[in-house]
Amino acid sequence: MNIPNIISFSRIILSVILLFFMNSVTLFLILFFIAGLTDVADGYIARKLKMVTALGARIDSVADIFFYIVLLLLLFLNYRWVFTENAALFVAILVIKFLSIIVSRIKFGKIVFLHTLANKLTGFLVFVAVPIVMLAENNSFLPALLCIALLAALEELLILIKEKEVNENRKSLFIK
Fold first, then answer.
1. Which residue ranges make up each domain of the chain?
2. Does the model's pTM come out above 0.70?
3. Which of the 8 DSSP states describes residue 86?
4. Who is most buried in 40, 58, 152, 165, counting CB within 10 A?
5. 1: how many CB neighbours lie within 10 A of its CB?
6. CA-CA distance, 8 to 53, in Å (whole number)?
7. Helices then strands, each counted (H, E), the chain
8. Where are the alpha helices (DSSP H) in 19-116?
9. Model confidence over 68-80: pLDDT tens digits?
């Protein structure tokens, strides 16, 4: 375990802790921002210290999954209107993500999550969107965000179908 991996692992722990603060907007958002910072810090430090590893990428992906599951639970339990008003987009994204998991497992023998630019943009937009939904109870921008997430998911699926070898850090369908 190196420093970036410990930072990524801390996001898993923070995500679990977030579950206990879903009804406290202030505490939730403080922990949410700390978890978000770990998502940026782990990759930056890994690249800066030349500690980029396959294990680190895997821990980062698992931490992202935990983080997004907690956010989906938060939205479902406390802001259900976000789902009801955007149900088709949420379902489409989840189906495509599930297909990506199946394709990567069959094709490469493991579950692969790509760190594409579109996936990073989606993560940033989610990071901005959650406080807006929680504080302003506004979701007028969510259809646009979910369309970007849908395109990112489609791009990931197409890359997984097209490529012969795994490159988890593939920038996009158009840039290797």
1. 1-78, 80-176
2. yes
3. T
4. 152
5. 10
6. 12
7. 7, 0
8. 25-48, 54-78, 80-85, 87-108
9. 999 999 988 999 9
